[in-house]
Design a protein that fits this description.
Number of strands: 10
Helix content: 10-25%
Largest sheet: 6 strands, mixed
Shape: elongated
Strand content: 25-35%
Radius of gyration: 21 Å
Number of helices: 2
Order of helices and strands: HEEEEEEEEEEH
Structural class: alpha+beta
């Protein structure tokens, strides 16, 4: 019995030590935060990007999604872009970039369905690069801009006659 316990301890201790150490090369998580100026539910030619917006990377337990295991916040630059280092591998977790706040009073409501985006933060998935690009996430304006009706016309389906 003692030999079995010793064998298990010798196998598990190195694995636990490796799992708790920071990675040699941290992940670089990059993305953009936008304002849906037309309230279209997607980015258009009238979309603007929000400097000073707050976002966070949040990782939850795959088996208990209400249990947050990692959280880190950052702010977008003058072009609405963010870049964040994440030094740990979150292979068995579900990680998202999530909008937190917008400094623009008229564009401060999280855009439904575009307020978060999944990001894979593990080195055990075949991706060679440490860079992780997140789909753009955003907020929507209280009222659409006046030019939006013309902008949205370009996205309407056109039927052609033969």
């Amino acid at each position: 019995m003692a030999k079995t316990v010793l064998l298990i301890a010798l196998c598990l201790l190195p694995a636990l030590a490796v799992a708790s150490r920071p990675m040699k090369n941290p992940f670089i998580v990059e993305g953009k935060v936008y304002c849906d100026t037309c309230r279209a539910g997607f980015e258009t030619s009238a979309t603007t990007y929000i400097p000073g917006a707050r976002i966070r990377i949040e990782c939850v337990d795959r088996n208990a999604p209400s249990k947050v295991l990692f959280r880190k916040e950052t702010t977008t630059d003058s072009e609405g872009c963010y870049s964040m280092l994440v030094a740990e591998d979150h292979g068995n977790q579900i990680c998202d970039a999530v909008v937190v706040s917008s400094p623009q009073q008229n564009c401060a409501k999280a855009a439904p369905g575009r307020d978060r985006a999944r990001v894979i933060l593990t080195g055990y998935n075949g991706i060679a690069s440490e860079k992780r690009f997140v789909n753009n996430i955003g907020f929507e304006m209280d009222e659409p801009l006046a030019l939006c009706s013309n902008v949205l016309k370009q996205y309407q389906e056109t039927e052609y006659e033969n």
